[in-house]
Amino acid sequence: MSSSPRPPTRLFRFGGVTYDLAFPQRDAHGDLWYFQGCRSHDAMPLLSLDGRPERCSLANVAIHLGPLTPVRAGAADVVAADARALPPPVRPPGVPSGPVCGPIGPAV
Asked: Using alpha carbons only, what angle is made at residue 59 by residues 53 and 65, rounded to the nearest 5 degrees?
């Protein structure tokens, strides 16, 4: 029995595959998709590409850009490994922190 803490998991099953959304997912083209806690009205996880504000459902990403593979490296390693990664977005003053999902997901 290990006393070291295990990383959190965010498991979601789709199309016979279980995805751990606690990790970025690399698509067949090498792009990284991130789950930031937003879901559609039917609980489908919404992913964003390289930190962009637009969201796509896990279903669409998996079907059209898959297979998806988890990137189990630290965040610094992920950015270093993918030269196309964008810097984190800057929130303008007055915009609340946390995920803002728009009309089909929760706005926090």
From this structure: 80
Strand, helix or coil at 33? strand
Four-residue CA torsion sign, 29, 75, 10, 56: negative
Average pLDDT per 10 consecutive residues for the chain, totaling 108 residues: 62 94 94 93 92 91 95 58 50 54 50
Coil/strand/helix, residue 26 = strand
Q: 3-state class of 63 per DSSP? A: helix
* Predicted model pTM: 0.62
Compute the distance between CA of residue 88 and CA of residue 36 in angstroms, rounded to an integer.
13
